[in-house]
Recover the amino acids of this structure.
């Protein structure tokens, strides 16, 4: 049974580590929207923070 691998960004290319698409890829977008459905401000803060790390 395949293990779930989160679709996260690989820096400095900002490509998805799993599928190689520009990040956030479609699976990452769906995951982030589900996780931050009730907290859009939190989503913006998270996305802004990923660019500065």
């Amino acid at each position: 049974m395949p293990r779930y691998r989160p679709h996260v960004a690989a820096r400095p290319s900002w490509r998805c580590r799993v599928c190689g698409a520009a990040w956030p890829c479609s699976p990452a977008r769906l995951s982030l929207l589900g996780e931050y459905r009730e907290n859009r401000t939190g989503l913006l803060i998270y996305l802004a923070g990923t660019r500065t790390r």
